[in-house]
Amino acid sequence: MEGGGDITHRRIAERADVPLGATTYYFSTLDEPREAGLELLVAEAEEALAEMRRQAAEAQGDPATLARLLHDYLGDRDQLRADREP
């Protein structure tokens, strides 16, 4: 996994499978795609947490449901790495 300091227009273009010129045209600075990526990450995290809260509330403290939610969270390696990033 790459940290936010590793962002370049070239890496963005490679990851998005678009020409390098497209990234420099739409993002004049590297702060713009970094900010957009962080906004997306926050929105996805908020959505996932809201879903977990909903499921936990519906379970009314059922240990099996709570254990499954925790297992699913801890089993998502990408999410755990994202949560650990400074």
Secondary-structure element order, as H and E? HHHHH
Please count the helical segments: 5
Write down the overall geometry.
elongated
**End-to-end distance:** 13 Å
C-alpha Rg, in Å? 17 Å
Give the % helix.
over 70%
SS content category: mainly alpha
Arithmetic mean pLDDT: 85
The biggest beta sheet reads:
none
Strand content: under 5%
Total beta strand runs = 0
Low-confidence stretches: none
Task: Describe the SSE topology.
Layout: H1 9-16, H2 20-26, H3 31-59, H4 63-74, H5 77-84
Helix pairs in contact: 1-2, 3-4
Polypeptide structure, described:
It contains 5 helices and no strands. The chain is mostly helical. The relative contact order is 0.11.
Descriptive key words:
single chain, 86 residues, mainly alpha, 5 helices, elongated
Give a concise summary.
The chain has 86 residues and is mainly α. It is 74% helix and 0% strand. The relative contact order is 0.11.
